[in-house]
Amino acid sequence: MIATPDRTPLSREFFDRPVLDVAPDLLGRILVRTTPDGPIALRLTEVEAYDGADDPGSHAYRGRTARNGVMFGPPGHVYVYFTYGMWFCMNLVCGPEGKASAVLLRAGEIIEGAELARTRRLSARNDKELAKGPARLATALGVDRSLDGTDACTSDATPLRVLTGTPVRRDQIRNGPRTGVAGDGGNGDIHPWRFWVANDPTVSPYRAHVPRRRRS
């Protein structure tokens, strides 16, 4: 008999820990997106850790800006950024206030509200692809910069909440280099900070960083 996932919201204390403790512990947790069109729930299957000023791959490596300000705030809040001029990606802030560490939510399995997610991800060939990658995840959930700074640690019907779910056993967790990160930040020997559920079909494929060509 499969146990029903725990729907209790994760506490602030869960996120007020080092990012490398929080990141793998997020696998199997449930992210709930509440919208006027209905709720969508997603089981997290892939994440990446980013450790602020100590991490050359982090948006906060060079200090605080208007874009990354939420990363420096209280743990358990949502940091949303816009990338490549077309996509949004979402993170969960962790560690002590002022430390600027966060976990990028890379992929997950839609467990509720798949019908709504499909209307936002028309190019998905099947439901396993609805949230297979950070931009796809944000698109499927209808996440944009208006949700930057949302508190995800509340029992109220806020736009985004993280529930306890069913944590993944440590022997089912894999880790390796982060996807698309340049330089030392993408070196798997130094920063093997991408974590995923072994053999889960919703996990995105690994891709090394490819420098973008400037238009002539």
From TrEMBL:
GO terms for molecular function: alkylbase DNA N-glycosylase activity; DNA binding. It comes from the Bacteria. Its EC number is 3.2.2.-. The keyword Chloroplast does not apply. One of its GO terms (biological process) is base-excision repair. Keywords: DNA damage, DNA repair, Hydrolase. InterPro entries: Formyl_transferase-like_C_sf, MPG, MPG_sf. Pfam families: Pur_DNA_glyco. Belongs to the DNA glycosylase MPG family. HAMAP family: 3MGH. This is Putative 3-methyladenine DNA glycosylase. It comes from Streptomyces swartbergensis.
